[in-house]
């Protein structure tokens, strides 16, 4: 498989260089975001007349099929793909021919990375918030059960004034509340 940057070198690169440059082992989790962004891009290319509507439709159908197969476990990503974007382009081109190469018209690899990461972070923030809020609820429940459980408070790693365990736990619940606010702020900035 040809690498994006292979034309710059006179001979084949060492496998260690390929491994160093490859990100597919961890960015494969962005497959859904990459396909979603690529579908929107292909639809725009067709609608604007940048590529033929027939090519855009072919790309969209190809991407839908790839998504179904990935989710059914029929497509596995291997080290032969440098990153998720190259994987999608190669799989698509193998299926629909040269029309698959038109998907990257008017879009850089950096555009793809930025979009994929934003879509992924937006999705993950929702999941993380659910987990943090669930943890906060557990802390509050535990705090209610320990309103009369006395323990030493600590300051600078030294024992200090006695507090209840319930009070102590609520300090952590408040820390988590700040984290939820930070996640909300991050989510709000995703579309700027």
Q: Could you characterize the architecture of this molecule?
A:
The protein is mainly alpha-helical. The protein is 64% helix and 7% strand. The protein contains 7 helices and 2 strands; from the N terminus they run H-H-H-H-H-H-E-E-H. It has helices at 15-21, 24-27, 31-47, 53-71, 84-96, 109-145, 165-189; strands at residues 150-155, 158-164. Strands 1-2 form a two-stranded antiparallel sheet. Strand 1 (150-155) and strand 2 (158-164) form a beta hairpin. The longest helix has 37 residues, at 109-145. The protein is elongated. The model has no long low-confidence stretch (mean pLDDT 90).
How are the secondary structure elements laid out?
Layout: H1 15-21, H2 24-27, H3 31-47, H4 53-71, H5 84-96, H6 109-145, E1 150-155, E2 158-164, H7 165-189
């Amino acid at each position: 498989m040809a690498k994006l940057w292979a034309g710059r070198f006179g001979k084949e690169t060492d496998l260690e260089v390929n491994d160093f440059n490859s990100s597919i082992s961890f960015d494969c989790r962005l497959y859904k975001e990459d396909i979603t962004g690529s579908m929107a891009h292909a639809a725009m290319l067709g609608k604007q007349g940048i590529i033929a509507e027939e090519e855009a439709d072919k790309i969209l159908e190809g991407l839908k099929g790839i998504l179904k197969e990935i989710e059914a476990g029929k497509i596995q990503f291997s080290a032969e793909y440098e990153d998720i974007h190259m994987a999608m382009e190669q799989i698509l081109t193998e299926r629909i021919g040269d029309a698959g190469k038109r998907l990257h018209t008017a879009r850089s690899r950096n555009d793809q990375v930025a979009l994929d990461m934003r879509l992924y972070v937006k999705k993950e923030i929702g999941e993380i918030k659910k987990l943090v809020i669930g943890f906060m609820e557990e802390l509050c429940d535990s705090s209610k059960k320990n309103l009369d459980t006395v323990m030493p408070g600590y300051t600078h790693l030294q024992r200090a004034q006695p507090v209840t365990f319930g009070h102590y736990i609520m300090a952590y619940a408040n820390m988590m509340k700040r984290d939820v606010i930070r996640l909300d702020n991050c989510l709000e900035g995703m579309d700027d």
